[in-house]
Amino acid sequence: METKDGKDKIFGLGRAPTIDSPYLDSSHHKAVEEAFQSGRNAVYDINNKGEVDFFILLPDENLFDGILDVKERVSLTFQKNKVVALSVDYSELDMLENPTFDFCLDQMIDRYCLEWLSRYEIISFYYMVTDDEGEYVCVGLKTLSVPFTLWYDIKRYVNMKGPLRTPYFMPEEISDRRLTGKLLISPAVGFYVDFSKLVQRFESEAHAEEVFHRHFFHGLSRIQFTRRKEIREQAVYVWVNKQVAISGNNQPSEMYSVFLQVQHQNLEKSRDALYSLFSACFDELPEFAGSRIAFPLEEEGIPAVVIEKGSLGKFRLTQEFFLRAKGVFQDRFAKHRKYKSCYERLMNSSQEREFSGKNVNLLKMKKVEDDQVDTRAELLEEIHRSLPELLEMLSMRDKESERLKDTLVLLGDAIFPCILPLLSDAREQVRVNAVEIMGLLGSARALSAVMSMPKDVSADVESKRAWIKDLYLWRNP
After folding, report:
1. Each residue of 334-345: pLDDT tens digit?
2. What is the distance between the alpha carbons of residues 190 and 260, in angstroms, rounded to a whole number?
3. β-strand partners of 104
4. Alpha carbons 169 and 280: distance in angstroms, whole number
């Protein structure tokens, strides 16, 4: 029989235990009983509805009361001979052994059970005990939703893909003084993943983040444990970035970038080896946009880790680094004198800055950190209250208007709803300044709003829009 999604459905003989019929049937649940009798405390079976039931044999019926009060930790591990083990951690309970269910990927029934889990995303645990007459009776049921990370691994294993490994980090952090001036201007191999498309596929930003980071850490692990001499003999610096880019059809999208940079600018020697090692972690993602030689600092990457002779350490970034990076970026890579790189924004975010202005209380507020939600909300309310004064200032082309724009940009994307209506304001200079603010915010929705504007009658507005497009235009690797 075929299910609605076109997959074959396999039916067993047994019925899932119920309150009215809690006992296992000796003929229909023969495999389950034989597994228990052989000493195993965990076994799965397919019932007469084509569903997968998971049976756990408890050494004591009283344990079930404790099970109701704990949250199971379910994990999946890839073992030898294509065996996948689903383990349930009850270590806080006094059980003899944590239940483990083994699936052999070479066996059709086992693969069906894993595929069923990935489709229906539930696990039904039936807790069994032996009564005085030696029969197996169900004392309780617990149904769990399959966690996303577990679901993702199941999908991978069903498709016969190996496990995604995790690297080992050194406990101590690495000083950012290792990031010499020469490294700041050196090229790297850049890898790009379209995060917007990843979010669309998984319908969740959190799930998309999880998938990206699982594959990213797997790539770090491959570099950390490689035996390839041309890589192990030198340090590999890893930069990361999440940036908004505009495609050729004016559609903004968020891109994750990873840059692998080697010491002594010996990129040619190790480029192919680095690519073959790291690209394998992204190749299976349809959202992988490819790779190219790039400058991490030009694309506002942040140094994350350094891998050297199998050791992997996180960088401890200080104001000194951000100050140096800001200077190099402004000197070598800035496309516009007014553009503030992430290095300048990060440096400013840890410093207390005050702004002066006329007749607008907002300009006397201090810089707001992203996690200061209440203060940010107060500022936005202040902006709404001061909108007439703001519009008056943004209609001018003077120093006060420039200070106001700087302040609004520092508030971040939360200012977007306040600026959006200004894109269609009757005053030309207000539209020019609103377009510039949106461009400097740099978020996907800010760029989308600017790119989707109808053609403006003002040449200055169109010139500003062209500048923004050039600033963020994505060059396909």
Report:
1. 777 667 788 887
2. 7
3. 83
4. 21
